[in-house]
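Regression check, adenosine-2'-monophosphate case 252:
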Amino acid sequence: MKTFLKYTIQSAGDLAMEWFQREGILSSQQKSSVKDIVTEADVAVEQFIRDQLHRNFPDFGFLGEESGIQSGTDGRWIVDPIDGTLSFARGHDYWSVSIAVEIAGQIQMGAVYAPARRALFFAEKGQGATCNDKPIQVTSVDALNQSVLATGFACLRANLEDNNLPRFNRLAAEVLGLRIRGSAALDLCSVAEGQLDGFWEQTLNLYDVAAGALIASEAGAQITDFQGKPELNPDQVLVSNGFLHPALLEMM
Ligand code: 2AM
Ligand code: CA
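Current build output:
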């Protein structure tokens, strides 16, 4: 399954790259709101992944960003064909394909592939995390004023009253650097490999974070909600190298 997953996500990434290189700034259709775009590539890449997975694992269910839910008996695949669609559509390199395998309610394997950055992140539960087959680990930065964090603003598209702006304001004043890069899946991997010391975002979906969260936690990251509950809650994702977690919880 591991070899199959790595092969499939790389093929999907190569397919996405064809669009990325061919189209430059892609024509995009409006999805549910003006701020939520989906490109033709999102749909095509998800269809490709779905076909591959179904052909090889017919008894697995499927949860995908573009085509919704299909139930299965053995477990399910959780797929975001292009996480960071806006970056993709505007020619930035920070976007990824994300595939997780859930068995008996637990994420067992996750892969996140950023083809434009030539980075393939992978983790299997209990086996550690890798980038391009090399082991990766979180940083040991333990002071907020030395930390580089990322966040995102999915919540603003949902017009929520509890949006991320107060947290952003509080943290921006305290940290060494704060980034908004537009792919939650890749942000989790960036914590795993030590480009970032932490990341938080709210109002995400399971397909944005399922694979990246396993990769981060296998690289030594701590993941909680904003109250410190040790679970993956896509509505409130706080991930750090662990050392920064108490200080970050205070700031949430
Ligand atoms: P996407 O690119 O697949 O849409 C960036 O802040 C993160 O938020 C990305 O992972 C992005 O995934 C996600 N995102 C963007 N718009 C969103 C919306 N309306 N609701 C939930 N998540 C969204
Ligand atoms: Ca996404």
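Comparison notes: Residues 30-35 have pLDDT under 50 and may be disordered. The CA atoms of residues 185 and 198 lie 13 Å apart. No diff flagged against the previous build.
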